[in-house]
Amino acid sequence: MNKEILKDLSYGVYVISGKKDNRDIGCIANSVIQVTSKPVTIAVSINVDNYTNQAIKEQGYFNCMILPTDIDSDVIGTFGFKTSADTDKFKDMETIDVNGYPILKKAVGYLQCKLIKQMEVATHTIFLGEVIASDKISDSEPMTYAYYHKVKNGKSPKKAPTYIEEDNPKTGKKRYVCSVCGYVYEGEEIPEDFKCPICGVAKNMFKEIS
Known about the structure:
CATH architecture of the largest domain: Roll
CATH topology of the largest domain: Pnp Oxidase, Chain A
Number of domains: 2
Oligomer: single chain
CATH superfamily of the largest domain: Electron Transport, Fmn-binding Protein, Chain A
Radius of gyration: 18 Å
Largest sheet: 7 strands, antiparallel
Distance between the termini: 28 Å
Order of helices and strands: EEEEHEHEEEEHEEE
Strand order of the largest sheet: 2-1-5-8-9-4-3
């Protein structure tokens, strides 16, 4: 099977959120699609080991926030490469309150969904949600997954449904990998004030790779 063709499928970049134990939680997702128009229904795929997966099953509700191309790197770093089990992901984020839930102020918009069905598929759960509230927040350009990879040089978390393990090419340059998100920096030395453009961690979180 040639997995390269999978990269030609179209995806976006979203934050899926909800509540668990009266705490606001969330994660990054890229597999979100509209499946019907009457009623408006969307589907989202979330890893079974993800804390947000548990929250959706328990609460029967979730929010989907569409991220723009100019979203701060710490948003993707926080929601995509940390766990809500031990991190308050919304703590330092600018949000607006919508029906009792924090929605990222810099999102393109949001959809609030009532869970109507779920299906288990190997490593992920596909959740079907009927949209009960939605709105645009800004006219910013929505980020596609292709943009995230090609322009931001972003990496897929191992729990992402689209994760593909890739070989490290030989370039002749020193290469350093971020231990949090997998971003690779190429160059002789990493600057002291360098921060990972994907997850925002400092130089000390990078390790040299051969």
